[in-house]
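Review form for a predicted model. The reviewer records the input and the model, then writes brief findings.
Reviewer: anonymous (R2)
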Amino acid sequence: MAVTARDVAKKAGVSPAAASLVFRGKPGVGDETRERVLAVAREMGFEYSAPSEVRRTSTLQLIIYKKHGKVVSETPFFEQLTKGVSDETYRLGYHRLSISYFYAAEHPSEQLKSLRSTKCAGIILLATEMRATDVAQFERLGVPVVLLDGWFPSKRNDSVVIDNQRGAWQATQYLISQGHRDVGYLNSNVDIRNFLERRDGYLSAMRSLGQKDFDPAKAIVRVGTTIESAFDDMSAYLATGPDLPTAFFADNDIIAAGCMRALAKAGIRVPEDVSIIGFDDMPICQLVYPALTTMAVPKASMGALAVQRLVALIKGETTGESVRICVLPELISRESVVRLPTNA
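Model under review:
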C-alpha cells in the first residue's frame, strides 16, 4: 500500500497539518520536528517535492476524476460544482484555478507527472467516480487534498459531500406522507457511493412502514444513468407487464426524466398513475412535463466549502483533525407527485 503524508505524520508523532508544512517548506514547525518528519519520510519511502523545489504559488488545482464517465459529465450539476470552486478560489485571493481531467484508463503516470509540474498549493479532487484505492496517487503529490462529492471509510481525507442517505430518506418519506405506501426505486446501474447511500436511505424509509411483504428485489428497478439508457431500461421493464407502485424515488433527475419519458410512451400518466421524485434539482426538472419534484443540492456551496477547507489546510489553520462536511438536500415540490386519498 502506498505511503501517504498522513502515514508519515502518524509515525513521526505530529499532526497531518504540521507534516504538510514540512513537506512544503513552510514556517510554523520547529527544526527538530522538521528533521524528524523528513527522516521518517525518507525511511518510509514517501515521495514529495523538496522545499527547494516548491515555489510560491497562488494556484489551486481542481482535478475532475473520470473512471468511466458514466456519471461525471458536462451536466449542470458538475458545472455548478466547478463554478462554486472557481468563485471561492478568487474570493479568497488565489489568482488561478487550474482545472484538469484525470482519466483512470489513460496512462496515469503521465497524468501525474503533468500534475506535479504545476506546483499547485493544494488539490480539490472530484471523487464522484473514485474508489478508495484511487486516492493514494494524489496524496503522494505532497500538497493538501480535499475530496469533493465523495468520501471513503478507509481514508482520512477531508471531504465535502451530500448527505445522500438523509436526502433519499426524506424524499421517500415525502412520498409516504402523500399517501404512497407502495414506493418503488429507480436505481442507477452504476454503483458509486452516492447512489449506494441513496439506496440505504430509501430502504430505511420503506422499512419504517413495517410492511412484512416489502420485497426490495421487486421494488427496485435498475436503469442506466443517461436519459437514453434510463428510457430504454424502463421501457424494457414496462414491457414485462409489472404491477407498478403508486410512486417512484429516482437516484437523480436525469434518471427520473428518462423513466418519465418511458412511462409516457407506455400510456402511463405522471402523477395520476405514478408519482415520481428525483434528486439534485437540475434544470431538466422544469423542462420535463410535469415539472419534477426533487431534492435540491446546494452545488455551488459545496464547491465553495471545499475551497475554504483546502485553504485552511494550506495555511496550517487546522489542528490536524479530518472532517467530512455533509450538506443537506432540500425538498422542492413541483407537479410530479400527487397526494393519494386517505383510503388508497
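Findings: The domain at 57-162+300-329 is CATH 3.40.50.2300 (Rossmann fold).
Further findings: The radius of gyration is 23 Å.
Recommendation: see findings above.
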